[in-house]
Design the sequence.
């Protein structure tokens, strides 16, 4: 009898444990985030067959593609700070509306890596950070390592970008210096930046010594050095396909400009950065730009192989995105900083085998939503008062939307420029006027509708949606505050 009771008790405990395990949220073994720089959404291989990124294609096929992901600002620093903070540029604790000298986000306002770290993961970023500009942090921290530690990072290799000076002390500059290549690279890049970074010609170094290949090598070494029993979150931030258009070696000749097709919104002739441009010159720029994308794709393949060697690839949460896009001739513009799709929309793919649906979502989302998505996936707790939202409900098929609109902001003088995009329309206001586009019927934004009487009601609705968003996304330090009278009454009630 005693033996039977013991057996029954054991079976019950085993059953309860199994049920508890089944109910417990499954966490990824690792998290790998790949951030490109200045990747136009017009050049994603799942929509554009002239692009060659087979490795990213494979990740996209196995994951969820977000077709309406927008950066909170179409320029590097504020977009990246939004990711770290989970805040919009208009929020206190961010307050950066463009690239600026002397800026650095305080650790108190940038909790992304700390939230992930508290969930038990090793945190690392390798490559371009670009959260700070200038030495402002030095007033508060003895060195950059102390600053990064305060942000919640266990490991950082900050590769600021291609060195245009021989004074660089980051790992890549030291690597070039050791090879006797730092001076030639610095001279080449300095000349490009002064005379025009959109002049397409090969890098002065071969691919094996190109900055993104070097950065990827550091990331591969880091992956190989980490104990397999402890999960990690690694952000690999690459500089490409950001200009200068200096794709190295075979990447510079991989695409024949004459065989490339330009979108219809690229003018036949336009003037930019003091240069008269036409379709032939734009195709030459595009060929080099696509070569740099192919290089990023090969870097992604190396990272995937490293995770496979680690043994966690099939359980790894993988995210691919960019900080902002690139106009590449659209509407007669180059570079970024505008609310046209080419500049403000970004690629976003999330892959997590057996946990999220493979497919595509047209819901408006923000690039900064990557932060709470990771925190939820790893079973962490999101710091309060964040406006970024987890995308797992969409990726798991539990919801169609997590926000009514996506927005973006930029400007260095009032009135500042703001944009809103819902399921169909895009609205923005700049220093002079308002704009309205129907992205469903006019995806290339060739027909501006704000002056059309038939669209006045839509214009009013989009203006109101943006106003509601701005009213609803303010950091409120008084939230939850109680008056003195209420506190006293509650204190007296608790004594009874």
Sequence:
């Amino acid at each position: 009898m005693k033996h039977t009771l013991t057996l029954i008790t054991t079976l019950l405990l085993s059953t309860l444990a199994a049920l508890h395990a089944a109910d417990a949220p499954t966490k990824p073994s690792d998290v790998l985030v790949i951030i490109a720089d200045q990747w136009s959404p017009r050049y994603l291989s799942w929509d554009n067959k002239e692009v060659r990124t087979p490795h990213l294609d494979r990740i996209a096929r196995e994951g969820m593609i977000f077709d309406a992901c927008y950066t909170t600002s179409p320029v590097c620093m504020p977009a990246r700070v939004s990711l770290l903070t989970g805040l919009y540029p208009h929020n206190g604790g961010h307050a950066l509306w463009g690239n600026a000298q002397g800026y650095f986000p305080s650790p108190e306002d940038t909790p992304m890596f700390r939230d992930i770290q508290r969930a038990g993961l090793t945190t690392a970023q390798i490559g371009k950070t670009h959260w700070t500009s200038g030495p402002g942090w030095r007033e508060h921290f003895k060195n950059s390592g102390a600053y990064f530690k305060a942000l919640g990072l266990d490991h950082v290799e900050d590769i600021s970008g291609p060195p245009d000076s021989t004074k660089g002390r980051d790992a890549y500059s030291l690597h070039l210096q050791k090879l006797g290549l730092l001076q030639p690279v610095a001279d080449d890049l300095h000349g490009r930046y002064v005379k025009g970074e959109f002049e397409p010609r090969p890098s002065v170094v071969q691919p094996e010594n190109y900055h993104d290949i070097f950065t990827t090598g550091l990331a591969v070494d880091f992956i190989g050095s980490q104990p397999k029993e402890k999960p990690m979150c690694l952000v690999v931030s690459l500089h490409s396909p950001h200009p200068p258009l200096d794709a190295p070696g075979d990447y510079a000749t991989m695409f024949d400009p004459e065989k490339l097709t330009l979108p219809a919104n690229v003018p036949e002739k336009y003037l930019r950065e003091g240069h008269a441009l036409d379709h032939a010159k734009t195709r030459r720029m595009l060929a080099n730009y696509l070569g740099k994308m192919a290089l990023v794709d090969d870097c992604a393949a190396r990272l995937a192989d490293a995770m496979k060697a680690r043994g966690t690839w099939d359980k790894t949460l993988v995210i691919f995105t960019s900080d902002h896009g690139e106009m590449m001739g659209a509407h007669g513009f180059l570079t970024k900083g505008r609310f046209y799709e080419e500049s403000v929309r970004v690629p976003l793919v999330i892959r997590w085998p057996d946990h999220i649906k493979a497919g595509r979502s047209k819901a408006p989302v923000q690039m900064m939503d990557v932060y709470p998505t990771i925190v939820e996936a790893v079973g962490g707790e999101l710091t309060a008062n964040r406006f970024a939202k987890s995308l797992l409900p969409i990726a798991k098929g539990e919801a169609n939307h997590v926000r009514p609109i996506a927005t973006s902001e930029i400007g260095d003088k009032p009135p500042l420029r703001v944009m809103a995009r819902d399921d169909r329309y895009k609205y923005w206001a700049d220093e002079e006027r308002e704009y309205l586009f129907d992205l469903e019927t006019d995806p290339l934004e060739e027909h501006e509708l704000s002056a059309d009487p038939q669209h006045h009601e839509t214009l009013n609705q989009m203006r109101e949606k943006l106003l509601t968003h701005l009213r609803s996304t303010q950091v409120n330090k008084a939230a939850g505050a109680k008056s003195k009278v209420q506190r006293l009454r509650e204190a007296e009630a608790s004594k009874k």
The two ends are 52 Å apart (CA to CA). The chain has one domain: 27-408. Residues 4-24 have pLDDT under 50 and may be disordered. The chain has 14 helices and 16 strands.
